[in-house]
Amino acid sequence: MSTTSPENSGGRWGALPILGMKAGKLTATIAVTFFGLLVVTFLIGRVVPVDPVLAVVGDRASKSTYDAAYLALGLDKPLYHQFWIYLKNALSGDLGVSVLTKKPIIEDIARVFPATLELATAGILLGTITGVPLGVWGAVRQGKLADQVIRVVGLVGYSAPIFWLGLLGLLVFYAKLGWVAGPGRIDIAYEYSVTQVTGLLLIDTAMQGNWAAFVNVLAHLALPATLLGYFSMAYISRMTRSFMLAELAQEYVTTARVKGVAEWRIIWLHALRNAAVPLVTVIALSYAGLLEGSVLTETVFAWPGLGQYLTNSLQNADMNAVLGGTLVIGIIFVGLNLLSDLLYTVLDPRVRRRT
């Protein structure tokens, strides 16, 4: 007959306070980061040289109208009181009303963000799928022709103006060769045949079996996604090469080679696995950079996403929308950073022991 020893029982229940401390630490980190983000966005809204009252009422409004709007916006209250109102509204999901669209900003962002999400996800997938193998290959062939070519290709993608590459791509692949569709997300002939459920047109058209629209959406997505994928690939391949060179110089690699372990196993199963830990952060930050709204790419391709929404809002002095979008971007960065930290514990057991 088996019995549970006090030591085993204590060990099992003794882990609960540790898990509670970890959860509390994570919650406190999120709360402090979010509070700091709110402070920054609030201060940005107060230091930019744009009168929020004029943005609402226009520059031809009478003084009485201006004064009424000034009071309605709470600008007569002390700065700390204004921040308290802003904090309460933000926590309740109220980011204000857009001057440009006359709709709640949270609704505008929910409408435009799926377009950016679809474009950024396609871009980071292409960038990761190509960037990681190229970075590994460059590290393995260090100093040789293949390495030099990979570095030059990455340098061009990392340094060339992305709007210039976009215009060049439209000229060559759309205007001259006709291989891809033009600006926009979907042709107007298919736009009203798709019922948007998720807002991700590739998924929505596939779910509805509308394959003609699916092909049209893919044709519009191909060029901007490839452009963002190339941009991401340049950075990811560069960092992968750097991490792999550091790992291939470690003693465990030399020991594995002395023991006769196959070179492909050393590279792909040992060195790359260790390099994957810092590489997670690189990919997460690259993804966050695309999700924040690739402003120039979305402008060149008339892509109705978050980047174009923020550009239009800024051009029309719609500071509520700009600050709301900035807050969402900050939340994306914080969320992906936290996700990369959690992935560390999966990829590296040493992190689990330290935490």
TrEMBL record:
Localization terms from the record: Cell membrane
TM regions (residue ranges): 26-44, 119-140, 152-175, 211-236, 275-303, 323-347
MF-aspect GO terms: dipeptide transmembrane transporter activity
Superkingdom, taxonomy of origin: Bacteria
InterPro entries xrefs: BPD_transp_1_N (IPR045621), MetI-like (IPR000515), MetI-like_sf (IPR035906)
One cellular-component annotation, GO: plasma membrane
Membrane association type: Multi-pass membrane protein
Residue ranges of domain ABC transmembrane type-1 in the record: 113-344
Keywords: Cell membrane, Membrane, Transmembrane, Transmembrane helix, Transport
Species per Swiss-Prot/TrEMBL record: Sulfitobacter brevis
Family per similarity comment: Belongs to the binding-protein-dependent transport system permease family.
Native organism taxonomy: Bacteria, Pseudomonadati, Pseudomonadota, Alphaproteobacteria, Rhodobacterales
Record protein name field: Peptide/nickel transport system permease protein
